[in-house]
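Deliverable D4.2, example record:
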Amino acid sequence: MRQSLLVEPRRLELREVPDLEPAPGELILSVDLALTCGTDLKTYRRGHPKFPCPTPLGHEFTGTVAAVGAGVTRFRVGDPVLAAPSAPCGECPACRFGLENLCKNIHGRSMAWGAFADQIRVPPHVVRRNVFPRPRSLPLSHCALLEPLSCVVGGVSRLDLVGRETALVLGAGPIGLLFVALLAQRGVPQIVVVGKRKNRLSAARALGADEVIDLDEVEDPGAAVRDLTSGFGACTVVECVGRPEAWSQAMDYARKGGEVLFYGGCAAGTQVPLDTYRMHYDALTLKGAFHFSPSDVRIALDLLVSRGLPGIDALITGQLPLERLQDALEELLAGRAIKLAIAP
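Output generated by the structure prediction step:
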């Protein structure tokens, strides 16, 4: 089989490696389609402490069962499936407290990792909880969105949207755009997106944004937000950039009594100044969100199967073969694409 490996930042090699053999409880999938994501891009650009080079990349995928490990009874060779790449262990303290999205064993090599290849290994705990038969009517690209959509479902579940007239999404990357789609599906009356790049802001409108503020054109985005919200600011702000300055901006965009969800992850050790006066006297609610639980995955799956997110095709702006993965990642770095499909 072929597998794309990151041998050093911004250098990939497509290598021939032995076909995968399943251990008990595992599935080996032939990858039918994989999608790029922000984690792939960050790892490609600068490396990743949890995945030292040389490392495979890719964890948004759909495939067909190529081999079945001993003890697996739900699937057989030839079954088309879709999957989220991780699952909680069910045994650590976080899992026992019901915080499955914070399971200590949910990341790193316990994931199904390495979808930019002909085959991928799915660990037993993922097979048990987060692998599903693939509806034949569902486009492959939609199936491969299960993981990022599950993350966003988990994020939206943290929000109090009852009576909220305006939601603002800061950042128009793939995750921010999925927040737009889900907020629109939840019936938020006004959705504003603050971001950059015409292609992304156009996609935001296709996914349900009512207003967009282009940071490359607007000198004072805070004033623009107030103009769109009768001078008050947004009831709900979702930060999807993952930079300290964006976290600070997110709080500035919130109205009195508003809530701010910090979804974009900043680097370890990062700190953000907190306006304690506003926090207290404006009664702001600040929240974090991370990853997903199996219940979020099932909600995401239902949304995909029911075609409950119109315009979702706007997220995926092209498809390239596996041997051109490096070209795809360079296109993303240059801002010419939003999310790309990679076909073996």
